[in-house]
Write a structure and sequence with these properties.
4-stranded antiparallel β-sheet; alpha/beta; 5-stranded parallel β-sheet; DNA-binding; 11 strands; single chain
């Protein structure tokens, strides 16, 4: 899952980003409306967490522009203006959800995950396949009833493979979905992560390398 944080309070923005990364999300951060529109024009996001009072381009205009593009990203408006009139105004601009400040971080995570399930094709809250059961909300994964301890990146990669339902997922796609834009596109990090993930999943092997294309979960 990939998230864009748009928040001019830098400490808050970076704190939210670090917290979401601990939830195995790929997170990019910008601090003004101009950069938000630019970033969303060439990166694919599941959710945009958008502050309303932004410099350069106001959050309302950013929301209106993103909603008008009919992009797959869902918009969670995050702002200190929390009365009913403000919520109605924010939702009327195209936001999908509204969370006033101050907020409980656990609620933010739950709302981001709920919105991500609505971006693109419907996705069940718990992903299953080849004896693997992955619960993104509880950050738990098991194979054949055996609990697995995965790193955040291993968890994110496995989540993408399960979401693909047997389809091939390219290394480039995994870089986009499990890491953020600061990753070196020529890095071998996907291959290394795939090797450790395979080892933790154990036998029989379920992740297939499709030469020249990427990776997929093998059919039963």
């Amino acid at each position: 899952m990939r998230v864009l944080i748009v928040e001019d309070e830098r400490v808050l923005a970076d704190t939210i980003a670090e917290g979401l990364r601990e939830e195995a999300m790929a997170v990019d951060v910008v601090y003004d409306g101009d950069d938000a529109l630019d970033r969303a024009s060439y990166n694919e996001y599941d959710v945009v967490v958008l502050d309303r009072d932004l410099p350069t381009v106001h959050g309302d205009e950013v929301c209106r522009e993103l909603a008008g593009r009919r992009a797959p990203a869902r918009i969670l408006m995050l702002t200190a203006a929390g009365d009913v009139e403000d919520r109605v105004a924010g939702l009327s601009l195209g936001a999908d959800d509204y969370l006033p400040k101050p907020f409980v971080f656990g609620e933010l995570v739950a709302r981001v995950r709920a919105l991500a399930r609505r971006s693109g094709a419907p996705v069940p809250p718990v992903l299953e396949g080849r004896g693997i059961r992955l619960d993104p909300h509880r950050r738990r994964v098991a194979r054949d009833g055996r609990e697995l301890r995965l790193t955040n990146k291993e968890f994110a990669v496995l989540e993408e493979l399960l979401r693909a339902e047997g389809g091939v997922v390219s290394a480039e796609r995994l870089l986009e979905r499990a890491w953020d834009e600061n990753i070196d596109p020529f890095s071998n990090i996907v291959r290394v992560t795939m090797a450790t993930l395979r080892r933790k999943l154990g036998a029989p092997a379920v992740i297939e390398t499709v030469t020249g294309s990427g990776y997929r979960l093998e059919a039963p």
